[in-house]
Design goal:
It contains 40 helices and 11 strands. Helix 16 (about 385-395) crosses helix 18 (about 425-450) and helix 24 (about 560-575) runs parallel beside helix 26 (about 605-620).
Amino acid sequence: MLDRLLDLDPEAQEALLGELADTDPDMHEELALLLRADRAMGLLDADIAGVADALLPSGAVGVELEPGDRVGPFRVVRVAGSGGMGDVYVAERADGEFDQTVALKLVRSAAGAPAMHRFHEERRILAGLEHPGIARLLDGGVTSAGIPWFAMEFVEGEHLTAHCDARRLSMDARLRLFLDVCEAVAYAHRKLVVHRDLKPANILVTAEGRVKLLDFGIARVLEPRVGESHDPGTSTAPGTLLPWLTPEYASPEQVSGEVVSTASDIYSLGVLLYELLSGKRPFHEATGRPHLLVRALTEDEPKPPSRMVRAGRGDAADSADAVAEDRSSTPERLARQIQGDLDAIVLQALRREPDQRYRSADEFAADLRRYLGRRPVLARRGSRWYRARRFLVRNRAPVAATALPLLLAVVFAAFHTSTVTRERDLARVQAERAEGIADFLVGLFAESDPLGLGMGSRPVSDFLAIGAQRLGQELSTEPELRASMFRVIGLVHDNLGIYSEADSLLRAALALRSEAMAPDHPDVVQSLQDMGALRRRQGDLPAADSLLAEAERRLLPTAPGERRADLLDEIAEVRRLQGDFPASDSITREAFAIRSRILGPDHPRIAVSLSTLGVLARELGRLHEAEAYHRQALGIRRDHYGAEHPYVAESLRNLALALHGAGRLAEAREVYAETLAMQERVLGPDHVGLGPTRNSYGALLRTLGEYEAALEQYRLGMDLQRAAYGGEHPSLAISIANAALAYRDAGDLEEAHRLAAEALDMRLRLLGEDNPSTAQSLNIVGILARQTGRFDEAEAALQRADAVYRRRFGPEHTSVAINRSALGLVSLERGDLVEAEDRFRAALDIFQRVDAVGHLEAARTSMALGRTLVALGRVEEAEDRFRTALEIFEAALPDDHRDVLDARAQLQRYPAPPVAAVR
């Protein structure tokens, strides 16, 4: 409306204002105020067309270009848009030199002296800017009518915010694009150019995701050349908005007539980031009401963007739900992501005082990179707790994921207690205890990292050793505080896989608490749970079971639901490892129900239950269900922890296992590779957590026929596990058993036998016979015995495995089918063709019933049945089995895989080869 008003002559302006006085008094008041300020500046004292007549050559007024018109070497194709002082056309080179599409900009007919000055200034500024993030100047000149023009790089793309919303980009993806914008702005600033009109419409993103900064129409150079006059028409009187300014993205100094500097662009970048994060601008309620916007910019402080997300309600396009959906999130999750570091970064850029903002676009970008790298951000400098938390996050997430939240829980519980009891002495003691923890931890950082350089190459183990040593010397008069710190550092050791040190520290915490507190005190129960979880990770399942049962017995009925859910998770995991899947499933669902009720669907602890449910679903053969659980857990963890975190890697590995089990080998391979790369970055290459991933990846490579590569993964994984566990462990037994199969496939039966026997012995000692993991070892021993002609031994081992599988899984499970197929091969190689056919058909029936007919083992069973049918003289039936197997093999395996080649050969080879050729 203001633009429309400014385009009218004074008489028409007064007439329009008169109409508004009756129909919209508020709008009338705002426009009248702005018009008076504008006239006071003298911008409307002269007739613009008259000024143009005096300044431009005769005939310039009223010229507009049509498609086909020539401007210099270019031919106009179409109008692209209009700016505050000029028109932009899409044009093509027409002189035959080469093909080129450009954005052609001409000063608008009837433009006045200020606009003409700005046009020439824009052309001069662009000529000095050469950056991949800034649209380049290509050519320039004057038309035959005397109208100046210039040609720029034509950028086909979307406005920044539209690009992000259309693709529902995550927060991290938006920040990476914004960093590209900062880089382009920082380059301009180094060239002493201030853009002064940074907004989404002036920032395009191409289909390839490249950012291009446009429209330097009101930009200015900070140090004018000698003899150069000041840019006319770009100063403002206080409280006045220039008509070519975009007020929603303007800085306070731009609307108050103060000196404009690079800090003004920093403010505009802050507005832009605010909108990218929250979907709204800082003072969005004043949009379209200029006088309110001026007042807000110069007098008010913007709300944190996270609060803007939480405040959004309703069905509008900018409601909280719509905004979160555009960011592939939910309102609650989005607000949590923004709250804290991102709030602080945005508000730092939006300080009213220019000298209190980031000093440069580079510094702004560096703080965002600190956020993305989980390092302390400058915008929150000074907080001891904050520095401690970010230190632990930076020094890899096992610390951040477990130790610090627990530490914070101790402190905040103390403050909560002091509040609700209203006992001043207790409040003082609890506050002092909290300060003691903070002082201890921050002092530990200072000793480990005196220059604040982020530890450099110093290993976290050094930091932990210092902490343990200091605990032996300090806090002797504070047993409860000392126990809390023993626990924190013990849990860090536990999560780093340093189990022996974790054991002594966690036992010390339990002993101190048991001596100082009642048996059912929540801290004692927590320490019992800690010890139970450690024993589980160490592979001592009976001890873990006993400790967790004791913790459950002592857990008070009044304990918070989340405490009970955490304990149930541990118990469920022990039950799963013991092979009691129904019990594990029931307990996990109980924990899931508790968390869903008190935390909501997107809390990171929900992902713990989802992960366990996914693992159980996979082990029970429900692979589609498993994939769904793991994808949901992965989404929650990425949103909460960011793109790189051990919990994210854990979910990726679980997803890869589900994809592998479903026969989607190419997808699984990509996810395994991503998991390993992430674990090496966030945990380090020597962390025991890489052992299971290398084992699983090795199993995939073995499936694909890459036996040497598989063996290398198994060796690396077993080395890590042997170093961490120092002897026997269920996870190590899994790796040994799988390595035995790889050696078998590679032709080294002697090493395969040795490893298979080692794995079976270890599992019998750790888990007992009635465990699916032990059954897997019995299956492998049986397979190897068959291949060396020891058929009775093979039959016995496979029958033992069958009994365990049926007890634990029931009669319909892929493990039962695979084992039955192995029994069929024993019958086939002993020459009992009828029994072999029965066993193979029984296996295939199970695969059919559990919706696993596309499983690779189902295809191998079809091949074995085909050979049996050939031996029985039923060649046509055999051909159907070979063809079915080949279709499965070709869909999942490389063309040169032995299974693919074998199936193709069998389809052309009749009669079948002798029984002795069966693998």
